[in-house]
What we know:
The protein has about 160 residues and is of the alpha/beta class. The chain has helices at about 25-35, 50-55, 70-75, 115-125, 155-165, and strands spanning about 1-5, 45, 65, 90, 100, 105, 130-135, 140-145. Strand 1, helix 1 (about 25-35) and strand 2 (about 45) form a beta-alpha-beta unit. The model has no long low-confidence stretch (mean pLDDT about 95).
Amino acid sequence: MHVFDSFAGLPPSESDYYQAGEFMGSLPEVQRNVSAFGKIEAVTFHPGFFADTLPKSDLQPMCIWMDVDLESSSRDVMTILGRLPVESCLFSHECCPEYFLPTGIAAARGPDSVMGPVLDAFRNNERDITGTFISGNTGAFWDRNRGIPVMPVNELIRIKDLVQS
Ligand SMILES: C[S@@+](CC[C@H](N)C(=O)[O-])C[C@H]1O[C@@H](n2cnc3c(N)ncnc32)[C@H](O)[C@@H]1O
């Protein structure tokens, strides 16, 4: 797992809602938590703002999990969407069920919405975006024609119950 974060909170932005520095968790604090609850040896940390760290990285992600709050940060992350295998998916922690319509993905654009850059990046990489709401604030997006759909949580729970019964 490769973790990209400023470890200094959100960057300055045009948002009236979010403040620079918000959600700051220092690198030592995050490393302590990962050591306590996970396997630190499986994680590589890339401290810095995405605009600085992502262009320097040649990572080929198998999957992207994004939790970045800002449109500008989403735009920076989406510069690597083309490196994500077309079968794979993007998870975002800034979703609500209303984004996922039978007619497609619908989400407002603005400084506090990550969805504009996601829609643009899929289109620019010739991927026909589709997706599903998962739970909480989490949604998943993939290419309608070539992507492997993410199973909704309630279906996974049904399979678990069937296997156990
Ligand atoms: C809401 S927090 C989520 C943190 C973590 N996923 C969690 O659940 O605790 C948003 C995170 O995105 C990071 N972030 C947002 N925009 C960034 C950017 N442009 N460059 C680096 N980090 C950024 C912030 O530092 C913050 O840690």
